[in-house]
Amino acid sequence: MIGQRLDLPLAEDSTGRFLVWIMAVMIYLAIVALAGSMVLAGMAGRWESGLTGRLTVQIAPMPDESVPPLAQRTEVTLALLRSTHGITRAEQVAAAATHKLLEPWLGNALLDDLPLPALIDVEVGSGAGFDAAALAERLAGAVPGARLDNHAAWLADLRILAHTAQLVALAVVVLVGGAAVASVVFAVRTGLAIHSPVVELLHIMGATDAYVARQFQTHIAGLALRGGAVGLGLAAITLLALRLAAGDTPVGLMPDMTLGLREWLALITVPLVATALAVLTARWTVLRVLTRMP
Amino acid sequence: MIRFENIGLRYGSGPEALRDINLTLEPGSFHFLTGASGAGKSSLLRLMYLGLRPSRGVISVFGHDVAALKRADFPVLRRQIGVVFQNFRLLDHLSALDNVALPLRMAGVGEAEIREHVVELLHWVGLGDALDAKPPTLSGGQQQRVAIARSVIARPRLLLADEPTGNVDDSIGMRLLYLFEELHKLGTTVVIATHNEGLIARFVHPRLHLERGTLSVIAAGTPIAPLPMPTAMVLPAGLATSQSLTGSWLT
Ligand SMILES: Nc1ncnc2c1ncn2[C@@H]1O[C@H](COP(=O)(O)OP(=O)(O)OP(=O)(O)O)[C@@H](O)[C@H]1O
Ligand SMILES: [Mg+2]
Questions:
Q1: Which of A182, A235, A256, B202 sits between 20 and 30 A of B127, alpha carbons compared?
Q2: Contact residues, chain A, for B50 at CB < 8 Å
Q3: Measured CA distances, B177 to B88, B166, B182, B185, B217 (Å)
Q4: What is the separation of C-alpha B207 from the centre of its chain, rounded to a whole number of angstroms?
Q5: Hey, what domains does chain B have and what are their CATH numbers?
Q6: CA distance B192 to chain A (A)
């Protein structure tokens, strides 16, 4: 059909098939890396939003006779917390719940003999002028063995982990993108060399460099889209398989692997962005090579 | 239209293929280009269609000094030049139709219009039933007609044809020459390199004659000197023996 074929017989080059697979692998790697960083970021975000505004007060059991028993100290602590400005709720975590939390690590037998600390779950109202440091000081003075845990250190670690993962993902994407750009440059240069007689003919017939470049752009866009579809498909299979595998492990141990709709949409744009990058690279390469020709 | 001043052309470090060419083609002129094989006809045409730069001298095309042109200026000039190459230079992966459509596509003509004009022209040159054929499946003469159709489809200002009738019989040759003649009447400047003395005699136009790289202009209607009879032809020894070098024939 008219208009369906390129003036350059690029479709017959073996570099084409090679480029489809290169692009497929690159896009697969980029998507999996990005998805990994998204999962970690989402995890950190969920933990953070679940934990900020929440504190835990831990009251250690003390065998020392001079200290009031744990139950009494817990009552005192609860009263103190409830009268503190900015705190909206303070409840003791039921012993059974604490038990259950530790059971997978310590086992039932051991747990029964172990003196467990009392835990108090504290919620802080947003916007209220709540001062964690002052509370910690007051608690330490009023109740022996009481310790305020605002999860800050734990959250900081988590944030560092999530950020590191994002940096690694970014590095993977940059490296993979660089390799993809290099492959496109190579394929286009090869194409120009193989078809130099046709390119010369097109020039003699009055083709502009941009016209020749468009031939390559169309060709490369087709290859990149095909590679992108393959890479995206393989990545989707991998992510779904990982999620299925994670679904069988006990809740709480494994991070939540679910990606939201927004994340999926972002991942689907990866092949499109890669195609755009490939097309721009092809254009730039052709124009660069041609303008250096006599 | 075209001016050559003291043009010399040498390929690599070889001898000059063209020497001291001075030439002016007036707009609307029609010239035959003659000369023995290897005299430099294709080379001269190559300079005219800007496929090559001269080693020395000044070429101006459509009033522009070629040496002073920037790269980006060439496409506009080249699109006004139609070329029939001696070896056709068709694109083997494209149909006859797509080959002929190429100049129109480059000029950004709409597809519907392209199809209409291309089909009409291909019918005219006798290739109405080979529209979708790829050049490798066409005969030499058919390929030549595709090449000619491609050169004229965009109604060029300058038409350069290198042996355009070398592969067709005289009746088709006449028809193709008639096509060039009609374009010429519409204002196209034409240069046709040919060995065909019958056509030169039939269509009365001045001749550019190349003799080992130097050019002379011969007025229209000048009879062509008859070739001298070859004297004392002796075959190469390898061919002149009664036996083939590779042994005797199977009988
Ligand atoms: N690309 C090239 N590289 C080197 N030498 C060349 C090249 N093209 C042509 N020549 C030389 O230039 C001279 C003129 O060649 P040209 O092709 O112009 O002759 P011609 O008149 O068209 O011959 P013919 O009638 O056989 O087509 C020849 O000696 C040829 O060897
Ligand atoms: Mg020639």
A1: B202
A2: 204
A3: 17, 12, 9, 12, 21
A4: 14
A5: 1-80+158-163+191-222 (3.40.50.300)
A6: 18
Strands (E) located in A60-195? 87-92, 118-124, 146-149
Angstrom distance (rounded) from CA A198 to CA A46 = 59
Asked whether the predicted pLDDT for residue A249 surpasses 60, the reply is: no
Look up residue B117 and give its two tokens: 């004009």
Q: Which of B42, B55, B211 to mutate to test the pocket of ligand 1 (most atoms within 8 A of CB)?
A: B42
Beta bridge partners of B60: B3, B65
From the CB of B9, is ligand 1 less than 6 Å away?
no
Can you give the pLDDT at residue A258?
Answer: 67
Question: Which residue minimizes the CA distance to atom 17 of ligand 1?
Answer: B42
Instruction: Give the residue among A70, A170, A81, A72 at the shortest CA–CA distance from A115.
Output: A70
User: Measured between beta carbons, which residues in chain A are less than 8 angstroms from residue B111?
Assistant: 2-3
The pLDDT of A234-257, averaged and rounded, is: 71
Nearest-CA neighbor of A54 among A78, A80, A85, A90? A90
pLDDT (mean) for A237-263: 70
CA A271, CA A23: separation in Å to the nearest integer?
A: 9
Which of A110-124, A188-202, B114-128 has the lowest average pLDDT? A110-124
Q: For residue A211, give every residue at least 6 positions away whose Cβ sits within 8 Å of its Cβ, in sequence order, or none.
A: A202, B75, B106
Average pLDDT taken over every residue of chain B: 90
d(CA B86, CA B14) in angstroms, rounded, equals: 22
pTM: 0.79
d(CA A190, CA A178): 18
Q: Does residue B163 carry a pLDDT above 80?
A: yes
Residues B53-69 as b or e (16 or more Cβ within 10 Å = b): ebeebebbbeeeebeee
* Chain B residues whose beta carbon lies within 8 Å of the beta carbon of residue A214: none
Q: How far is B122 from chain A (nearest CA, A)?
A: 15
* Torsions phi, psi for B226 (to 5 deg): -65, 145
CA B36 and chain centroid, separation:
15
A75: nearest Cα among A142, A150, A148: A142
